[in-house]
């Protein structure tokens, strides 16, 4: 399952949109690594890319929300924190088990979470960025 960028993901902020495209690219790389059976090292790299880039992106969003006094910024930050906690737990579990069923569950989680988060949660602050 690959995610194709479209305007339905656009916040109207160039930096946020570039970062969203990068996150989509990482999720797509994860899908490709699974489908093409690229091995454990490729999966580990994608997971590391996701955790480091997601942290950078969340900081960017949270800084913008604070700058513009976004009314739901605390709720949004909590969603980011829940994602980070879940991702770190998945990575820990994967590093211990190397279980490919866990990889499939993680891929589904990342895929759904990213689409839902951008289209529902991130669109709530879109009006601030115009």
Task: Describe what this molecule looks like in 3D.
The chain is mainly alpha-helical and 130 residues long. The protein has one domain (13-129): Four Helix Bundle (Hemerythrin (Met), subunit A), CATH 1.20.120.50. Helix content is 75%, strand content 0%. Helix 1 packs antiparallel against helix 2 (40-67), helix 1 runs antiparallel to helix 4 (100-121) and helix 3 runs antiparallel to helix 4 (100-121). The longest helix is centred in the middle third of the chain and has 28 residues, at 40-67. The chain is globular, with a radius of gyration of 15 Å.
Compile the SSE list and pairings.
Elements: H1 14-35, H2 40-67, H3 73-97, H4 100-121
Q: What is the H/E order?
A: HHHH
Instruction: Please name the fourth-level CATH homologous superfamily.
Output: Hemerythrin-like
Counted up, domains total: 1
Round the Cα radius of gyration to an integer and report it. Answer: 15 Å
Calculate the mean pLDDT score and round it: 93
Question: At CATH's second level, what is the architecture?
Answer: Up-down Bundle
> Given this structure, which CATH class is correct?
Mainly Alpha
The share of residues in helices is over 70%
Give the uncertain stretches in residue-range form. Answer: none
Please state the structural category.
mainly alpha
- Label the overall shape: globular
Strand content: under 5%
Beta strand count: 0
The tally of helices reads: 4
Major beta-sheet overview: none
Distance between the termini: 32 Å
CATH topology: Four Helix Bundle (Hemerythrin (Met), subunit A)
